[in-house]
């Protein structure tokens, strides 16, 4: 089969707290099924089943992954049919624009045993409170890590040739866009390139760029202008009428990590840790911002200071990630309670109902 699956995040656990870009990926859809229900009620499994059904029918699909659970999905989109099935529970609550006309609520709570859950009321409340506390701790530590990262950036910013940076940025933008333009209103999709998960930083770079012929790998240091380049490129591409996939940093969403221009069959991304990749195709190219823009010998001159910064940064990230892992463990406990209360035959019936409604859209 030639159909493909792309994977990405739309929400993240970041240094700015929980960051939600869900709405951007839902734009242009004619039908959205919004799933409601507690943890363990089968939302992710339902989403996966719907995706598998339509991939097997030969359709391209997009899987939206959950950054708080490495094995869970937050949504599936079938672009050709302009339909999506998404988890609409907190923290990514989705506000319908045209209830009934576009969005349909799907209540998975019809499949649980409320009498059974009443016995666990206090336990549920207590666990949810503990989970909230874990996320508060994680976000606080990621915020601390970002402050340390700012120290890291300052060293390189103080040693950067800004005139040369502007010139290099223009050269790269001109190389990518050339004289091309399209007379149409562009579609701009904002997503996260990676996510801070209970298992550490994860991303889908290889999957997202697998069908792109030309890839540019940006190498450099914090503060060497990688995000600024990407922001300028995204803006210029939009002005030229190109659809743009804008991938924000899963740690600091105010920064960009990747831009994909599928109409030009090209992508460019920050290829430094924690999403460090190296060229694997003949057409891949490296753009080294450090060697091009930063004063020679900066790494060596500030080696001791940089060693301290990197150490403190890694500790803060590691501690923050440990709280995400603890939240995931508590969430698993919560799921067990709900799973024991569920009638999954009813969930299977709901899958069939949703699938039939999607099938009607093809007729």
Automatic annotation (TrEMBL):
It comes from the Bacteria. Gene3D superfamilies: P-loop containing nucleotide triphosphate hydrolases. InterPro entries: P-loop_NTPase (IPR027417). This is ATPase.
């Amino acid at each position: 089969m030639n159909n493909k699956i792309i994977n990405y995040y739309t929400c993240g656990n970041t240094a700015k707290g929980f960051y939600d870009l869900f709405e951007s990926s839902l734009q242009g859809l004619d039908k959205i099924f919004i799933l409601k229900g507690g943890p363990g009620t089968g939302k992710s499994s339902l989403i996966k089943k719907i995706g598998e059904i339509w991939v097997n029918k030969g359709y391209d699909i997009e899987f939206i992954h959950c950054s708080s659970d490495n094995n869970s999905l937050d949504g599936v989109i079938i672009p050709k049919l302009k339909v999506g099935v998404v988890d609409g529970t907190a923290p990514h609550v989705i506000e319908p624009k045209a209830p009934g006309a576009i969005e349909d609520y799907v209540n998975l709570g019809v499949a649980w045993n409320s009498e059974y859950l009443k016995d666990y009321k206090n336990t549920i409340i207590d666990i949810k409170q503990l989970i909230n506390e874990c996320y508060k701790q994680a976000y606080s530590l990621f915020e601390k890590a970002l402050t340390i990262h700012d120290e890291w950036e300052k060293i390189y910013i103080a040693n950067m040739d800004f005139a040369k940076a502007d010139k290099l940025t223009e050269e790269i933008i001109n190389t990518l866009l050339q004289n091309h333009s399209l007379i149409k209103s562009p579609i701009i999709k904002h997503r996260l390139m990676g996510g801070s998960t209970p298992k550490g930083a994860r991303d889908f770079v290889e999957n997202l760029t697998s069908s792109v012929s030309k890839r540019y790998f940006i190498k450099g240091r914090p503060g060497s202008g990688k995000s600024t380049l990407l922001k300028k490129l995204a803006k210029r591409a939009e002005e030229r009428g190109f659809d743009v996939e804008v991938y924000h940093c899963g740690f600091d969403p105010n920064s960009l990590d990747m831009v994909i221009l599928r109409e030009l069959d090209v992508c460019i991304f920050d290829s430094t840790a924690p999403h460090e990749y190296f060229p694997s195709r003949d057409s891949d190219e490296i753009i080294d911002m450090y060697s091009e823009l930063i004063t020679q010998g900066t790494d060596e001159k500030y080696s001791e200071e940089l060693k301290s910064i990197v150490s403190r940064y890694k500790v803060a990230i590691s501690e923050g990630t440990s709280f995400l892992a603890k939240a995931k463990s508590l969430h698993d406990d919560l799921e067990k309670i709900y799973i024991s209360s569920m009638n999954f035959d009813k969930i299977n019936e709901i899958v069939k109902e949703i699938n039939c409604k999607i099938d009607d859209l093809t007729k």
